[in-house]
Amino acid sequence: MQNLKIILNTNLKKKPDATTKLGFGKKFTDHMFTMIYKEGKGWHNAQIQPYSHIAFDPATTIFHYAQGIFEGLKAYKNEKDEILLFRPEENFKRLNASARRMCIPEIDEKFALQALSKLLEIEKDWIPTAEGTSLYIRPSIIATNVALGVHPSIEYLFFIILSPVGSYYKKGLAPIKLLVEDFYVRAAVGGTGAVKCIGNYGASLKVAENAIQHGCDQVLWLDANEHKYLEEVGSMNIFVVIDDTVITPALTGSILPGITRKSCIELLRASGYRVEERDISIEEVIDAQETGSLTEMFGSGTAAVVSPVGSFQYKYKEYTIGNGCMGQVAQFLYSVLTGMQYGKIEDKFNWSYNVTKKAKQEI
Ligand SMILES: *Cc1c(COP(=O)(O)O)cnc(C)c1O
Predict the structure, then answer these.
(1) What pTM was computed for the model?
(2) What's the pLDDT score for residue 2?
(3) Helices 88-101 + 109-122 axis angle, to 10
């Protein structure tokens, strides 16, 4: 393993009370991982250090041109007090895919996962155990060159911070209401919609605000070309169930390839469900709603795992899905995926990554 320096924090914070509402991404642990890149030197100075502010020159590239990327995953604790991750290799693989799109030098995926594991062992007591809670992990890479010229930075900072989180949605697993957006777009094929780059969400905030003003919780994006085909929802991929077939938009270049999406597809197929990855138009969904063959719609993502959609609004008309409650497929996915994440059920797919066990094997 590459050299990893550890500087322990001697001024530990008071851990939040697990019984109070943790919210999402508001509190952070005592340590963070950092590593820097310099042209000619590569990635170096990997260290775990006390969580702290970081100061940058106002002319730093990230502030002006958003040359930066991130990931999002979670750590859980099982009944044996062991630390579990869910398919973390996929997150570091995707981080490198995002890096390639944004001209950021790739990281050593294996080393990043080992460094994260070490960080998690140090912060183990920060992993909440109440139902629906976890330790959210945010790896990021930002361009730290001080220069206003528009070109790839020659210096970068990779950091990983940790945040104990409650349920992503304030209302818990209650079905959400979506506004089908037929003017603004999230991403076009050829753009950056398929990678987790720092600029994507900034451009979506106005549209999300508009959805809330219309009494909806989130935006259901349509394709940029024709404003016709479903793309995804906020920070989640989208699934619909029509005539017992589970359908999700194919990854055609503007949709973020969610790890939860991939897991849902693999799990459903292995359990005998018919799953289609293809274009699905809003008209097809409305037709199916009107004939009663649309039984479910749900989002998938690390933060919420599976989030049922109770209704959607399109061109000022509202459509209720099924009986407006969580459907069978969403319920199945939610219980199996969270069961694996918390180490409560058998993991036939080998998706659960036991940090504690791996650490013991390495000694
Ligand atoms: C991260 C993200 C997702 C979900 O990906 P997961 O790997 O399942 O967490 C979906 N859409 C967007 C836009 C995202 O940023």
Answers:
(1) 0.96
(2) 74
(3) 130
